[in-house]
Design brief:
This protein is an all-alpha fold and 130 residues long. The chain is built from four helices and no strands. The N and C termini lie far apart (106 Å).
Length: 130
């Protein structure tokens, strides 16, 4: 019975690690490609799965919280929990909300106005010379 339980724990740990690797971003994989992590977990089930979990947890703690001081910064963590409700997007939602896009539009508008002024001045110069 203990052997069966140990086998089930190893298989469950391996299945968890494989699904977690498959859904992980590139920066969460410590620079190793996804296929290499899968190979490690399959060939060395216990060692591979545990090493994946350790790497993943350390990468998550290195990233730190989205706001507030992180571990080792000397500060204290906020004591109030985050408020429930809809989350605000971190970046612009639509092009008209994107400051860079709006800046590019303004630059294009100024360029067109300069070109139109240059053409108008060229027409005026041609009319005066005739």
């Amino acid at each position: 019975m203990p052997r069966v339980l140990l086998i089930l724990v190893v298989v469950g740990l391996m299945a968890y690690a494989l699904t977690d690797v498959w859904g992980a971003d590139e920066d969460e994989r410590a620079g190793l490609p996804r296929w290499l992590w899968v190979l490690l977990i399959v060939l060395l089930p216990l060692l591979g799965a545990i090493s994946w979990i350790v790497v993943r947890v350390s990468r998550r703690s290195d990233a730190g919280p989205a706001s507030g001081p992180g571990p080792g910064s000397g500060g204290t963590r906020p004591t109030t929990p985050p408020r429930p409700g809809p989350r605000r997007p971190s970046g612009p939602v639509a092009p008209d909300d994107d400051p860079e896009f709006l800046w590019l539009l303004e630059q294009e508008k100024r360029k067109r106005e300069r070109e139109a002024r240059g053409r108008q001045e060229a027409k005026d110069d041609d009319a005066e010379s005739n």
